Amino acid sequence: MITIKEIAEMAGVSMTTVYNVIHGNAKKVSKANMEKIQELLKEYQYVPKMGLSALKNSSSKIIGVVIHTPRHYEDTVISDMFYSHVIGALEESLRNAGYYMMLYSASKLEDIYHMALAWNVDGLIVITFRYQEYMKLKVLTNKPIVAIDLIDKEEGDFINVGLQDENGGYMMTKYLLECGYDNIYVCSRKNVGVDHDRWIGFRKAWGESGHPLRDNDFITLYDTENERNKNYNRMLKFVNKNTALFFLADMFAVEAMHFFQSQGVMIPEELGIAGFDDSPLARYCYPRLTTVRQNMNEKGRIAVDMLIAVLEGRMEGRVEVKQPVTLIKGSSVKNN
Question: Cα–Cα distance between 137 and 113 in angstroms, integer?
């Protein structure tokens, strides 16, 4: 590829003059030189190096996508279907809008803060951040930030793309009760963030049905698959007890279903299994998983639209969008 130096030599100007043309500093270049250099750039199909722009105090056209990952991921964060769908939608939407995506994931917040300060990104999209972490990053970088699934929201200005998580938990629990289950347990790794909201929805529906609230209705899953098999082994006591297990992520629901089937348990005849997300796993497992559908791709597209609106001065202040959810009636729970 042709270099800046070669273009400058052909045009009979300095390299600084070529740089000014590339970066739009028209006032510093004569009209004749401007036209000459632009023709050469076009003829030789010169492509500017984005890394140089990213280090200057100008628009880099780079958007940082930052994921605060829990420490217990066995593989990479992208192996989680929720993140892979959202990231794919973010990249496509940013590319179509003329931006580049820089993806960064870390379990340590200090690493995230360092990255955001080191690069001249135009804005940030943060995923699974707590409100206090979001606000600290906003103050440190002084950049527009849009969150996806912001946790522990407080009073203050933030922009977030979330989900009707509580409604999803409520909707699924109502359906399982209508199916005639006497016992329903919620299963997830931690009762925080969106999972907590889904559990609240469960409790609301459970209480409205006249059932007394129980202290043990949330089952905390271990971090690794080998450890979770111990969870599932203890859940064998629910077999043939008119029980449904409501997993707050399809990944765990399908994993548990596989374990129970390997133990000879018939789904849904002897144990009901439900999930949340409607990922490809839910559609292709057997029996087809009963789950709550969220549009993960749409979350990414909306986040990009909102960030661009902020960058263009069309949006400010506190904005929260809650995407709707849909009940998907599969075959992993008994029919009502």
Answer: 6
Stated pTM of the model: 0.81
Taking only the tens place, the pLDDT of each residue in 127-141 is 989 999 999 999 999
Name, in order, each residue with C-beta under 8 angstroms of 16's C-beta and a sequence gap of 6 or more. Answer: none
Torsion region of 274: left, alpha or beta (phi above 0 gives left; psi -120 to 50 gives alpha): beta
In a 3-state reduction of DSSP, which class is residue 56? coil
* pLDDT for 316: 83
CB atoms within 10 A of CB 48: 12
The whole-number pLDDT of residue 58 equals 66
What is d(CA 266, CA 268) in angstroms, rounded to the nearest whole number? 6
DSSP string, 264-310: T--TTTT-EEE-SB--HHHHHSSSPPBEEE--HHHHHHHHHHHHHHH
